Amino acid sequence: xxxxxxxxxxxxxxxxxxxxxSRALSDKYGxxxxxxxxxxxxxxxxGYEFRKSASSRxxxxxxxxxxxxxxxxxxxxxxxxxxxxxxxxxxxxxxIRISLRFLDSDPEDKDIPIEWSIRSFKTSGIIIVGNxxxxxxxxxxxxxxxxxxxxxxxxxxPADRVMTNNFLGMYFGAKYLVDTGHKxxxxxxxxxxxxxxxxxxx
Length: 202
What we know:
Blueprint: H1 7-14, H2 18-25, H3 33-46, E1 64-70, H4 77-93, E2 97-103, E3 126-129, H5 134-141, E4 147-150, E5 160-162, H6 166-179, H7 195-201
Parallel strand pairs: 1-2, 1-3, 3-4, 4-5
Helix pairs in contact: 1-2, 1-3, 2-3, 3-5, 6-7
């Protein structure tokens, strides 16, 4: 959508009143959790600029950061442990406090929605590591806090992100095999189901 997104734009897209959108975005009374979530997700998708939260308003820098990731990602300890260690080292160099929060998943392996108390978290920035649901990312972005995505492959989410250079990494890996005399190289990966695997395959 061109130009600055307004509450009117969100209301028209969802066919609801502007006052309902206003109450949902400011956590006022009279809005069900389901409707509030729907409005906030649409606002993020349209690129609506949320007001800065009270915890970050008036600050010229970031003093503390909450890192959020799915608990199921811990099964890949070698990969995500290195990412978490690197984030911690970078924040420590800037004397920025760090806290870590894990999201549980239901029996169908879906993220359990973040409760609305996320808006009262004592943090001035959020780093999301790995893939969590678009709904939860939208909720986090709607707090007005700065949000950075790390290794989140969903291209539809309008946020700053840090990604692995899968193409270049695989290039160097394949080049090493070729340079050491290997001629029959096998690629293993579900490249039709993953952006990362597709980049590596290419």
